[in-house]
Specification:
The protein has 389 residues and is α/β, with parallel strands linked by helices. Helix content is 48%, strand content 17%. It folds into two domains: 48-321, Periplasmic binding protein-like II (D-Maltodextrin-Binding Protein, domain 2, 3-Layer(aba) Sandwich), CATH 3.40.190.10; 338-387. Strands 1, 2, 3, 4, 5, 6, 7, 8, 9 and 10 form a ten-stranded mixed β-sheet that branches. Helix 3 packs across helix 10 (279-299). The protein starts with a helix and ends with a helix.
């Protein structure tokens, strides 16, 4: 049959089909499309339910490395994916957490949180809109100067360089200048160029923040042209900074053996948007928290930055609320650990008590248990230190 006749025959078949058959023929493609669309939407929902976004820092900064460490350690556990995003640092990172669509978590310095809350930078009720999961560790403030400057006051009226892409370092320097009532000009300059300018006397200092030892600082030569400026803790800093120090084993070319240079550190906080409208985000964060806490032992391993070994889950940030899921996890873990220690203690008492001896009184038992817990913690701390390379 010629093709034209065949086409005409098919057309006639279509025209002579019953109304029901015609409707079924017409609806089949649409039903297939709807099924495909429904499947795609289900896949999209599953992917979004399992994926969280965390703001770290710009590439090359410690916060960027921290965020990628966490994402790597999770490794898809519990079906979760953590997407680490570049972030400007400083108050800009906090603004992005509050306003950018899809951002669940952020690494924000404690001094930024304190400043934003005190000044109302992002409106009232910030401590209700943002909650913290945990404090991670402190990042030391490094101020490199020439031999002619011996105090922070000596920076008055001079230029202080910060890395161009490190908003945390820039904010910290400006915050320190404001708190200590020192006027100076903050300029952005690559660290290698800034060191040359400090040596030449064109600028007074290079300021860096990060967990010691910073590779760049540790690689500086021992020629006397640079020194780490001491920065003692004062009441003006204590609400947002903690005392810290540099020693010879941190920077052997800059700190003489047996000496200590005081400085301050800034807490790296893992925070979440706590706004009520972010219900989907809250569910994702509630799943993330136990997976993250469970991964801390891996993060504290020798292949990671030594600062991971300093994480203290019991640390708090005054005036701020811990995320509910994190608080619940910590309380449950504490109860489980206490019950475990109590069982070991009971076994110890039974094994060590002579046959027929009277059981200790409640007061004696309480005192013995407190001493046992203290001894256990000390023993665990020694074992942990011994395991480090």
């Amino acid at each position: 049959m010629p093709w034209r006749s065949l086409g005409l025959a098919l057309l006639l078949v279509g025209l002579t089909a019953s109304p029901g058959e015609q409707a079924a023929f017409a609806q089949t493609p649409r039903a297939t499309q709807r099924a495909a669309l429904a499947q795609q939407q289900a896949s999209q929902k599953k992917l979004n339910d399992n994926a969280l976004m965390i703001l770290g820092g710009n590439p090359g900064t410690s916060y960027s490395a921290i965020a990628h460490d966490i994402a790597s350690a999770l490794g898809g556990g519990d079906g979760l994916r953590l997407l680490a995003l570049d972030a400007p640092g400083g108050t800009d990172s906090l603004q992005d957490l509050l306003l950018l669509r899809g951002v669940d978590l952020a690494l924000v310095p404690a001094n930024v949180l304190v400043y934003a809350n005190a000044t109302g930078t992002f409106g009232p009720g910030l401590t209700d809109r943002v909650s913290y999961i945990t404090a991670l560790y402190g990042e030391e403030v490094h101020i490199l100067v020439g031999p002619g400057i011996s105090s922070f006051e000596g920076l008055r009226g001079r230029k202080i360089a910060v890395p161009p892409q490190d908003g945390n370092a820039e904010f910290t320097v400006r915050d320190l200048l404001r708190r200590l009532h020192v006027e100076a000009e903050v300029v952005k300059l690559a660290p290698a160029d800034a060191v040359d300018e400090v040596r030449a006397g064109a600028i007074a200092a290079l300021a860096l923040t990060g967990g010691k030892p910073l590779r760049f600082v540790a690689g500086l030569p021992k020629d006397g042209s640079l020194q780490l400026l001491g920065l003692p803790s004062t009441p003006a800093l204590e609400d947002a900074y903690a005392p810290a120090a540099f020693r010879a084993d941190d920077y052997p070319t800059l700190v003489p053996p047996g000496q200590t240079i005081d400085t301050v550190s800034v807490g790296a906080m893992l925070v979440a948007n706590n706004a009520a409208k972010w219900e989907d985000s809250s569910r994702r964060i509630a799943r993330f928290i136990p997976a993250f806490f469970g991964a801390l032992s891996e993060l504290a391993g020798p292949q990671r930055h030594p600062k991971w070994g300093e994480v203290n889950l019991a640390a708090t940030l005054a005036g701020w609320t811990r995320t509910a899921a994190a608080k619940d996890w910590l309380e449950q873990t504490k109860q489980e650990q206490t019950a475990s220690v109590q069982k070991v203690f009971d076994d110890f008492l039974r094994a060590s008590s002579p046959p027929g001896s009277p059981p200790p009184s409640p007061k004696e038992r309480s005192q013995l248990f407190d001493a046992f817990v203290k001894w256990t913690r000390n023993a665990a701390g020694v074992a942990s230190q011994g395991a480090r390379p």
